[in-house]
Specification:
mainly alpha; about 190 residues
């Protein structure tokens, strides 16, 4: 992990940010993303946005999407939702990694916190697989798949929260180190 972090640059993080912003627009705001789905379903979104759900909730949700909404989700949003998670993972990995590069020594165990974006990616792909299975088999209820997918969604959101907390902590450490550097420079000068 430390070797990868050492190779991170602001330029690479900015490229990851650009990729993420394009994918965010496509999946959330474009006519082939959630914005388009909301038009088709009269305001029903996607299960990914829900917090841990029950089997009954999920299947009522899928029912409320209607056939056109389920097909739109499967054929337009899901292809995007296999490119969006890597874009978000690269974005989070790059910026958290850059902060860790500035606040920790090479080889520090603290740098392993940057595995969280990779865990997020695995969880998001697992969630997508579960949702695809439910959409493809609707109206047949895949209770076990739904139950697991609901938990995976909840865990994924927790991991994202942990990443946000890690970034905030690293920003504070970075700021403190910067202030200490300024104070040391003034006392020596």
């Amino acid at each position: 992990m430390s070797k990868i972090i050492e190779k991170l640059t602001v330029k690479k993080a900015l490229l990851a940010t650009g990729f993420f912003l394009v994918m965010l627009w496509l999946i959330d705001y474009s006519p082939i993303g959630v914005a388009g789905l909301l038009q088709v379903t009269d305001g029903v979104s996607i299960l990914d946005y829900e917090t841990r759900y029950t089997v009954d909730f999920a299947y009522n949700f899928l029912k409320s999407m209607g056939q056109a909404g389920r097909l739109f989700h499967l054929t337009r949003i899901m292809p995007l939702d296999f490119v969006y998670p890597p874009s978000l993972m690269l974005f989070m990995f790059s910026w958290l990694g850059l902060l860790l590069k500035k606040t920790t020594q090479a080889g520090s165990k603290a740098r392993y916190i940057n595995i969280l974006p990779i865990i997020y990616l695995i969880l998001d792909f697992t969630e997508n697989a579960g949702i695809i299975a439910m959409l493809l088999n609707y109206p047949t209820r895949l209770a076990a798949v739904c139950f697991i997918t609901g938990w995976v969604t909840s865990i994924k959101k927790t991991v994202v929260l942990l990443i946000i907390i890690a970034v905030m902590v690293e920003l504070v450490i970075f700021a403190i180190k910067g202030i200490k550097g300024l104070i040391n420079a003034k006392t020596k000068g």
